[in-house]
Design brief:
Elements: H1 3-10, H2 14-27, E1 32-33, E2 46-47
Antiparallel strand pairs: 1-2
Length: about 55
């Protein structure tokens, strides 16, 4: 989902969302970029990261 879409859904300013939440969530692995090799890609969006699918032991 694009940052603009998240901001609209949450009724928050995009800059606020990026500065206070999205950047940290990407850094901690809670979110991932759709185009990780190109952070300034025109169609950049956020997605849930792929998780290891190993069963709990």
């Amino acid at each position: 989902m694009r940052g603009e879409e998240l901001a609209t859904l949450l009724h928050k300013d995009l800059k606020y969302l990026r500065n206070k939440h999205l950047t940290e969530m990407v850094q901690t692995g809670e979110l991932a970029f759709l185009f990780p090799e190109s952070p300034n890609h025109a169609l950049q969006a956020y997605k849930l990261p792929m998780r290891d699918s190993q069963p709990d032991q």
